[in-house]
Amino acid sequence: MSNVENNPAELLCPSNPGDSAAAVEILSPRLVPLGGPRAMTVRRTLPQRRRSLIGAWCFVDHYGPDNVAHSPGMAVPPHPHTGLQTISWLFSGEIQHADSAGHHAMVRPGELNLMTAGRGISHSEYSTEGTTVLHGVQLWAALPEGARFTEPGFTHYSPTPKVLPGAVVSVFMGRAAGEQSPVETFTPMVGAEIMLDAGASLSLDLDPRFEHGFLVDAGTLALDGSPVAADELGYLGTGLGQVVLGAGDAPVRLLFIGGAPLNESIVMWWNFVGRSHEEIVAFRAAWQAVIGAEPAGVFDDVTNFSLPAGQVDAPLPAPVLPTVALKPRSNPS
């Protein structure tokens, strides 16, 4: 998914995990319209002023359930990415993906589509004509310094749900609940969908090296006894080896993410992840030159954008860069 805000914030995000793992930190979403007055609105819980990163996870958009039978739904023309992996996970509906590395795939509920942007990729995303209700999560993970200029790639994986007493766990990245995903990650990470029956509880082992996030899609989660409401993200710092997840009178569905602190500062702007303002300027110049929106400028030839084949809609031009200087933003200590 593209960040199609007209005035995206330029964010310098140092990786400073909290020192205490005991307290649950609640991250509330902000509403972000994608595209225009009739376009989708997403609930964004990461990044924000209170926290920029959870491990390498740097972006969390939660959308739906939206009835798109008589609306545009998701319609995002070709747009670029650098320095990150995009992770698509649906609860309902279907999305068609095409990218400049030649991958064409369908995003379906319970199936992971992971795109590695590396040195630079472009892709498009459209909900299908047969989709009536669109509901899911789009996440980004920042690539570490040693991998951020890797070749673009794409991975599709359908995890087998693990049925436990009162719970179902689908692990799509890393290891959780005794299940291991074969999907390659460039930093230690975990990602899973967890469903709890009404009144059920689950003791979940954690990697104490990781910080973790619990994004609630439905119901109210008791996270070690602390309530996390629907659309909120509960954060836990490093140092914990186990957590107890509980559901009240209604079933709970949540997305579980985590990872070792990145320990690198990243700069995010629009759909780019870099390490400096100058890199973002270069990425933007490279994209604008490829789509013919602006004359070719001076940019690092490591980034070599192209367009997906067979596209009907014109690619998205990059917004105008901000004129203000970067201001460091850090996680609370």
Which terms summarize this structure?
7-stranded antiparallel β-sheet; globular; 1 helix; 333 residues; 27 strands; 4% helix; Jelly Rolls; mainly beta
Detailed description of the structure:
- The chain has 333 residues and is mainly beta.
- It has a single domain (11-16, 23-259), classed as Jelly Rolls.
- Helix content is 4%, strand content 44%.
Largest sheet: 7 strands, antiparallel
Write out the strand line-up for the largest beta sheet, numbering strands in chain order. Answer: 2-23-20-25-18-15-14
Mean pLDDT: 90
| CATH C-level class | Mainly Beta
**How many domains?**
1
Task: Write a brief caption for the model.
Residues 41-140 form the Pirin N-terminal domain. By secondary structure, the protein is mainly β.
Secondary-structure blueprint:
Elements (H helix, E strand, L loop, with lengths): L10 E3 L11 E3 L2 E4 L7 E6 L10 E11 L7 E7 L2 E9 L2 E5 L4 E4 L4 E5 L4 E7 L5 E10 L10 E5 L4 E3 L2 E7 L1 E2 L2 E2 L8 E8 L4 E5 L5 E8 L2 E3 L2 E3 L4 E4 L5 E6 L4 E8 L6 E4 L2 E3 L2 H14 L43
Antiparallel strand pairs: 1-26, 2-23, 3-4, 4-5, 5-12, 6-11, 7-10, 7-12, 8-9, 8-11, 10-13, 14-15, 15-18, 16-17, 18-25, 19-24, 20-23, 20-25, 21-22, 21-24, 26-27
InterPro entries: Pirin (IPR012093), Pirin_C_dom (IPR008778), Pirin_N_dom (IPR003829), RmlC-like_jellyroll (IPR014710), RmlC_Cupin_sf (IPR011051)
Organism: Arthrobacter stackebrandtii
Protein name: Redox-sensitive bicupin YhaK (Pirin superfamily)
